[in-house]
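ESCALATION

Customer reports they have been waiting on this structure for their group meeting. Please prioritize. Original submission:
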Amino acid sequence: MYRLEAGPDEWIDRSAPLPFVFEGKPYQGYRGDTISSALAASGVPYLGRSFKYHRRRHILSFANHDCNTLFQVDGVPNVRGDVTLVSEGMRA
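Update from on-call: job pushed to the front of the queue and completed.
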């Protein structure tokens, strides 16, 4: 839906879809997608909320230093979504 057109040298292999689950809802990424890029391409508006004021937390960057994209993946807490690749059946 929000995914850009394929480029000549991109890392994402669109011939290999990978289904995964985020907050109990099914999504689809591709081989080479990070958790953040797959959710952004799926049109997820925000990834969580702050503790104190319950404000929305969005993706700020895909450059390996985004503190808003920490996930619990398959029971492991604090997994960085901007560098962790999507795998088939992943539960975030």
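Sent to customer with the following note: The radius of gyration is 13 Å.
Escalation resolved.
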